[in-house]
């Protein structure tokens, strides 16, 4: 059982890592997917390039994908439903996958889930039945990693503003992010990350205008170099 602790929702923090030392640096159009293993000690930065763009993400222990991210374990451990700097992403077994080490947005959603054909039709009407969704993106990404629909469970919605109302309901609201805001996670163990740059058009999670994101990935060597004093010439 993990210790309870208080997340500081005002805990904005910058990263000192430079993209020049990254092993991957890509721009992902809305509706596209990305996946990779972030090696232990490495980092992943997700940049909200134009602002107010929802980014859906799934996380797995790369060595055993049934040991996957659990919003239940994560929320109980931190005693807070929103994520920011210092939040630890825990698995169904209580293992730590990644830690948010930098965040210039300040709040990310754990509760809203990923958009899907089924929920779109229920919430917004049958005319949305054939719209592209994060669930479609995740199904395609899962297949690349020998996973199926059974492996798609809790996801995080980065930059998405989903307040929980006093009545205990979820409310999709206009985003609090802005152009260039980012969140950065450091892997505690080798972590398989699946990302869908959300194409949702029916609620304000993307400001009704899905836009690109930038994904930057570093290996441990670049992160370790941050902590190593530069040699004296
Ligand atoms: Zn979506």
For the structure shown, list the relevant keywords.
globular; alpha+beta; 11 strands; five-stranded antiparallel beta sheet; disordered N terminus; binds zinc ion; 233 residues; six-stranded antiparallel beta sheet; 15% helix
List the helices and strands and how they pair.
Layout: E1 24-28, E2 33-38, E3 43-48, E4 55-61, E5 64-68, H1 71-78, E6 88-90, E7 96-103, H2 117-124, H3 134-144, E8 156-158, E9 181-187, E10 191-197, E11 213-218, H4 220-227
Antiparallel strand pairs: 1-11, 2-10, 3-9, 3-11, 4-5, 4-8, 4-10, 6-7, 7-9
Bound molecules: zinc ion (ZN).
Residues 56, 114-115, 133-134, 198, 200 line the site of zinc ion (ZN).
Notes on the protein architecture:
- The protein has 233 residues and is an alpha+beta fold.
- It has one domain.
- It has helices at residues 71-78, 117-124, 134-144, 220-227; strands spanning 24-28, 33-38, 43-48, 55-61, 64-68, 88-90, 96-103, 156-158, 181-187, 191-197, 213-218.
- A six-stranded antiparallel beta sheet has the order 1-11-3-9-7-6. Strands 2, 4, 5, 8 and 10 form a five-stranded antiparallel beta sheet that branches.
- β4 (55-61) and β5 (64-68) form a beta hairpin.
- The longest helix has 11 residues, at 134-144.
- The radius of gyration is 17 Å and the shape is globular.
- 41% of the residues are buried.
- The structure holds zinc ion.
């Amino acid at each position: 059982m993990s210790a309870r602790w208080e997340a500081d929702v005002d805990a904005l923090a910058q990263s000192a890592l430079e993209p020049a030392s990254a092993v991957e640096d890509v721009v992902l159009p809305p509706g596209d997917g990305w996946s990779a293993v972030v090696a232990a000690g490495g980092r992943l930065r997700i940049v909200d390039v134009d602002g107010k763009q929802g980014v859906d993400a799934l996380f797995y222990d790369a060595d055993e994908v049934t040991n996957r991210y659990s919003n239940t374990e994560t929320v109980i451990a931190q005693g807070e439903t929103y994520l920011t700097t210092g939040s630890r992403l825990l698995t169904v077994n209580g293992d730590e996958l990644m830690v948010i080490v930098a965040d210039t947005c300040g709040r990310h959603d754990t509760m809203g889930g990923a958009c899907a054909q089924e929920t779109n039709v229920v919430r917004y009407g049958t005319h949305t039945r054939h719209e592209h969704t994060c669930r479609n993106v995740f199904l395609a990404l899962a297949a690349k990693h020998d996973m199926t629909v059974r492996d798609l469970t809790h996801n995080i919605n980065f930059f998405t503003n989903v307040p929980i109302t006093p009545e205990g309901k979820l409310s999709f609201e206009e985003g609090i992010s802005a152009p260039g805001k980012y969140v950065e996670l450091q892997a505690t163990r080798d972590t398989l990350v699946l990302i869908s740059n959300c194409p949702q058009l029916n609620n304000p999670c993307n400001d009704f205008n899905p836009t690109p994101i930038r994904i930057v990935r570093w290996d441990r060597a670049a992160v370790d170099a941050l902590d190593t004093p530069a040699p004296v010439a």
